[in-house]
Amino acid sequence: VDAINAMQANGLKSVETIGPEIDEPVAEVVEDLIHFSLRLDTESVDRLLERGWRNRGPMDFMSHLAGPLLVEVGTRWARGEIGVATEHFISERLRDFLSTRWRAANASAQAAKVVCACLPGERHVIGLHLAAVAAALAGVHVVFLGADTPIRDILSAVDRVGAKAGAVSVAGGASTDLLTHQLKVVRRGLPRQVSLWIGGTGAGAAVLPERSEYLHNLERLQTLASRLAEDRTPL
Ligand code: B12
User: Fold this and answer.
1) Could you point out which of 9, 10, 92, 110 has its C-alpha 20 to 30 Å from the C-alpha of 130?
2) Which pLDDT belongs to residue 128?
């Protein structure tokens, strides 16, 4: 209590004083998260993320809090309003939070497997973690390769674990031609019966290969993943 009083006296917020309102507008939570990130306050950021997850539920948290938070962080970073340390800090808190969630939700190793990977050159990995959480919650086993993975290694991982699908996240940056080419090479290397799911705003302009699907949102991913989990995939 003394510490909280001292913080209030100094005009600083503490997580305890924000209150546990369930209907707190997203913009306010985003402001609070950025506020504590500017102070590099790990505990408060983690507690706000935890509270958002609990109050909103996983899918609402991911689509309507984590997504907008990243966009806001990106916008402020591009405008020079927040520095690299703050951007890296909040990105890392979120990555850590989400990876804990998909690992906890991951179905047994006997369940249908989905390999989650980013294409070569892609270092934005948080969208892939969002996809991994949605997939694991739908009952599949996530095999997570992460950022910047050579295509031959994505293909050999799918083969080694006998995955039923590959999920790729594209945040932005890669040229449309390169991306179109990379996705074609991935599809050509995958067995026919393995699904290729592509998501992330950066993939929008690419020409997708046949037998692949652009998933507009995490709900669509859950639908497909739960079909795989129940082993009634339309091939
Ligand atoms: C965090 C961040 C970084 C971090 C990444 C940290 C990490 N560990 O991931 C770091 C510092 C590494 C980084 C680096 C760079 N970044 Co950056 N970054 C961002 C930021 C703020 C968030 C990106 C993110 O995680 N998005 C993920 C999600 C939230 O976004 P989404 O694609 O919309 O995904 C949603 C859905 O599509 C779905 N989804 C996502 N993936 C998938 C997959 C599947 C299968 C499914 C179903 C769904 C799904 O989930 C989300 C739900 O809301 C954005 C800002 C922004 N507006 O996004 C810039 C941004 C993406 N970065 C950008 C740039 C330019 C760069 C750099 C080139 C900067 C530089 N000069 O070095 C490098 C490139 C690195 C590389 N080679 O990839 C630009 C890209 C512009 C463009 N389109 O060309 C952006 C948009 C910032 C900006 N406004 O300019 N970045």
Assistant:
1) 110
2) 98
Which residue's alpha carbon is nearest to atom 22 within ligand 1?
70
Q: Tell me, what's the pLDDT at 5?
A: 46
The pocket around ligand 1, CB under 6 angstroms, is made up of 62-63, 67, 70-71, 73-74, 78, 91, 95, 121-128, 130-131, 167, 169, 171-173, 197, 199-202, 215, 218, 221
Full set of structural domains in the chain with CATH: 2-103 (1.10.1240.10), 107-229 (3.40.50.280)
Look at residues 30, 136, 127 and name the one whose alpha carbon lies nearest to residue 76: 30
Question: Closest Cα to residue 197, out of 178, 183, 207, 179?
Answer: 183
